Amino acid sequence: MRRIIALASVLFGACASGDADQQARLHKLEVEVAELRGRVEQMGHDDFMASSRCRKTIDVTIPEGTQMTMPVAFDVGRTNTRPGDRITITEISGTRPDFAIGGTYLVRGEYTLASADEAVLGFSVTALDPGDGCTSGNPRGKVHITRGSGKFELANPIAYRGHPHVSFYVHGEGSGGVYFGKGDFLEQ
């Protein structure tokens, strides 16, 4: 931000006086800004954001044959969906009978998507500790849906302290969802 303010000051000064030295400084700053833009684009916005907030990325691939058969009691916590949208959790089973780090959970439920033509419905865990929360490798944790109602079945491990939820993602941005869990694993 300071760099932008400095650039604006130089631009204003250069326009006001027309001085050759200021014109040269302006050109130099324009080149520098173009180089910085190029570096950010080259890194990719997502990579840049992930590198600035994640300690590590955890592979949460669910091994073939994982049995998520133990019924898991749950409470519904904070719910924030757009008007007309709905997510209802009807059943949770897991590799453990309670919510715990290291457990893998299967969530079944129903949804209604009215606020967009299409979305991704995803089961994820909001990390409680800074730097946690970056995962990869689990295609069973999300499903593409279209406007209307339907049933879903999503699976995901809990790899760190956090709050599980099923949410809508429209154009890659969170668009409301429902938190569920018990005790320290429930976002109220």
Structural notes for this entry:
The protein contains three helices and nine strands. With 188 residues, the chain is of the alpha+beta class. It folds into two domains: 2-43; 59-185, Immunoglobulin-like (Sandwich), CATH 2.60.40. The two termini are 36 Å apart. It has helices at 2-17, 20-43, 45-53, and strands at residues 57-59, 70-71, 75-81, 86-94, 104-127, 134-136, 142-157, 162-170, 173-181. A hairpin with a 2-residue loop joins strand 8 (162-170) and strand 9 (173-181). Strands 2, 3, 4, 5, 7, 8 and 9 form a seven-stranded antiparallel β-sheet that branches. The chain has a two-stranded parallel sheet with strand order 1-6.
Topology:
Blueprint: H1 2-17, H2 20-43, H3 45-53, E1 57-59, E2 70-71, E3 75-81, E4 86-94, E5 104-127, E6 134-136, E7 142-157, E8 162-170, E9 173-181
Parallel strand pairs: 1-6
Antiparallel strand pairs: 2-4, 3-9, 4-5, 5-7, 5-8, 8-9
Helix pairs in contact: 1-2
Distance separating the two termini: 36 Å
- Compute the average pLDDT: 84
Put simply, the count of helices is 3
**What's the CATH C level of the largest domain?**
Mainly Beta
Percent of residues in beta strands: 35-45%
Task: Label the CATH architecture of the largest domain.
Answer: Sandwich
SSE ordering: HHHEEEEEEEEE
Low-confidence stretches: 4-12, 40-51
Main β-sheet description = 7 strands, antiparallel
Question: Nearest-angstrom radius of gyration?
Answer: 23 Å
Give me the CATH fold name of the largest domain.
Immunoglobulin-like
